[in-house]
Amino acid sequence: MSLLAKLFGRPAPPSATTPAPKINRSAVIKAYQEHCFPVLQAHGFDAFEGTAAWRYRDKVIDAVDITFFPSAKTRQWGISQKSFSLSGGVFFPFVPHIGPASPVGKDGRLRPPEIACTDRKSPLRRMKQKNNQIPNIWHVADDGANLQAVMAEVRVVLEGELIPHLNAQGDLRKKLAELIQLRMTLKQFNPGGFYHLGFFALELGEWQLAKENLQKALATGFYGDPELANRTEDQIRAAIHKAEDMLKA
User: CB of 89 within 8 A of CB of 121?
Assistant: First the structure.
């Protein structure tokens, strides 16, 4: 033992109660990008911004993103502010979007937010997390101790569950058949249902079906902001005129 060590004793070990340094959301985002963006690229996604990714197929745009939550919610649920969910959906550009216009990337292509998509899916967590009762949220510890394990599972879920779900949504004929079946099943079909069915039929050249459903969407009416309602109704009327012109041709 050195003279200094004899005089002053051995350095005290770190206190067991000293908390580990906390990570921030930026660390989670970086880990997600490193683990999951290569998977998305391998499946045809070629536009990325922040945590969002987009894939462009014939008449279909797929969007995948993760979502963090406000502190009020994370406190209520007993999870950290680094916790997140994974989700993906399909955007059909030929169906005029009811709401704010989708952003456009520098390449001129639409980049609809995932929340604006249809046929959305938020996969469930597979790992057990004792204090996390929200099934589609991955809790990330404040010190990031489980971050790598979480990202490894998210990568598996993304490739094995979410991307196959999106792949199955690209068949427009199948989607039209599902909408027709839904209309026949439900006693009350809302304006949005008539709206989507009408525009799908229009895109596929089913002119009579398009005309009938768009007329019902127009008759049922859209609620909310008057300017938004007027714009939506103008789009429906233009589509009805197109269907009528094609029926006369």
Answer: yes
Kindly list the distances between the CA atom of residue 188 and the CA atoms of 20, 164, 219, 221, 240, in Å, as whole numbers in the listed order: 55, 31, 14, 14, 22
Backbone phi and psi for residue 237, each to the nearest 5 degrees, phi listed first:
-60, -40
For tokens 């169906």, name the residue: 95
- Between CA 116 and CA 124, with CA 122 as vertex, the angle to 5 degrees is 170
Backbone angles phi, psi at 56, to 5 degrees: -110, 115
Q: What is the pLDDT of residues 210-228, one digit of tens each?
A: 999 999 988 877 655 566 6
- Reference 192, options 104, 100, 99; nearest CA is 99
Asked if residue 84 lies in contact with residue 137, where contact means CB atoms within 8 angstroms, the answer is: yes
Residue that the structure tokens 């993304």 belong to: 158
Residue where the block lists tokens 């609620």: 223
Rounded to two decimals, the pTM is 0.84
Could you state, in order of their start, the residue ranges of all structural domains in the chain?
25-167, 172-248
CA distances from 234 to 13, 20, 56, 66 (A): 73, 58, 27, 34
Q: What is the DSSP string of 157-225?
A: HIIIIIHHHHHTT--HHHHHHHHHHHHHH-SS--HHHHHHHHHHHHHTT-HHHHHHHHHHHHHH---S-
Q: Write out residues in the chain with pLDDT < 70, as ranges.
A: 1-20, 188, 222-229
Residue 165 contacts residue 121 (beta carbons within 8 Å): yes
Per residue in 80-89, pLDDT (tens digit) is 999 999 999 9
Q: In the chain, what is the greatest distance between 2 CA atoms, to the nearest angstrom?
A: 104
